[in-house]
């Protein structure tokens, strides 16, 4: 691939890894996608080491030139659509460029084309905020029904979910740590459910609280912890497990503190 240099490919590969890791991808998936980028542009020798907070990448050219890059990862979210799109892009890059070597009729993917597609995926907005807020209400609402709640309790949990989702989104702009954010969210859920039970009555607030807490449960973190461990990434798997435990502790702390405070005041 004559239009790229070793530095270009290394920077593009680590940027690809950053986007996947910040979107909630497993560490072994990040390493695999970075390898596809490097190999797709003709640099088959590359080594990477990925943790939850950093990416280390070394790429070596056929002439012996070596480039090593480190990328610090700040926050992580959940965007499975972005992970899927980037995975498809890296596989397309590797497939097209390897096929172009044996078949001149197939157009290889250039550095510019890959960069433009990656930027498009990064800036793409899948759903407007109002859709996310509605889903934030649907989740606790239906979990409330699942645990035996009534339709009245479903309605309260639905409104509560929207209310908590909006507040948590605003609080993320303050750069609060994950523990405090989840503790505040759990406290808000208990407060909203208890206030609804106090003023509306005829409902089981426990079902509403349980449904609301499911909005905060770190399901993806637990799943990725198991997958990383099974893939042999013991450091990342352990780190994700500890992260999930701390989030669960934050939820318990927030909910328990608000329940105790409510029992003292009411």
Q: What descriptive keywords fit this protein?
A:
266 residues; mainly alpha; 2 domains; three-stranded antiparallel β-sheet; 68% helix
Give a brief rundown of this model.
With 266 residues, the protein is mainly alpha-helical.
Structural commentary:
- This protein is mainly α and 266 residues long.
- Helix content is 68%, strand content 8%.
- The chain is built from ten helices and three strands, in the order ααβββαααααααα.
- The chain has helices at 6-22, 27-40, 80-102, 111-123, 129-146, 151-172, 178-199, 205-213, 219-230, 234-265; strands at 45-50, 54-60, 66-72.
- The chain has a three-stranded antiparallel beta sheet, with helices on one face.
- Helix 2 (27-40) packs parallel to helix 3 and helix 7 runs parallel beside helix 10.
- The N and C termini lie far apart (71 Å).
């Amino acid at each position: 691939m004559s239009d790229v240099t070793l530095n270009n490919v290394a920077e593009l590969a680590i940027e690809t890894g950053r986007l996947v890791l910040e979107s909630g991808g497993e560490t072994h998936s990040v390493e695999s996608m970075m390898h596809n980028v490097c190999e797709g542009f003709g640099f088959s020798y590359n080594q990477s080491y990925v943790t939850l907070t950093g990416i280390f990448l070394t790429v070596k050219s056929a002439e012996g030139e070596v480039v090593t890059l480190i990328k610090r990862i700040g926050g992580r979210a959940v965007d499975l659509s972005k992970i899927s799109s980037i995975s498809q892009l890296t596989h397309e890059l590797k497939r097209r460029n390897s096929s172009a070597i044996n078949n001149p009729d197939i157009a290889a993917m250039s550095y510019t084309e890959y960069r433009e597609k990656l930027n498009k995926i990064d800036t793409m907005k899948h759903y407007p905020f109002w859709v996310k807020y509605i889903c934030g209400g649907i989740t606790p609402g239906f979990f409330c029904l699942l645990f035996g709640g009534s339709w009245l309790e479903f309605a309260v949990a639905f409104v509560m979910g929207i209310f908590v989702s909006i507040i948590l989104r605003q609080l993320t702009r303050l750069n609060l740590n994950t523990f405090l954010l989840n503790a505040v969210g759990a406290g808000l859920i208990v407060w909203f459910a208890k206030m609804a039970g106090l003023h509306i009555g005829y409902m089981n607030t426990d079902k509403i609280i349980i449904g609301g807490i499911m909005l905060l449960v770190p399901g993806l973190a637990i799943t990725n912890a198991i997958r990383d461990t099974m893939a042999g990434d013991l450091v990342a798997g352990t780190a994700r497990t500890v992260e999930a435990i701390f989030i669960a502790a934050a939820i318990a702390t927030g909910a328990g503190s608000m329940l105790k405070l409510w029992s003292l005041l009411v």
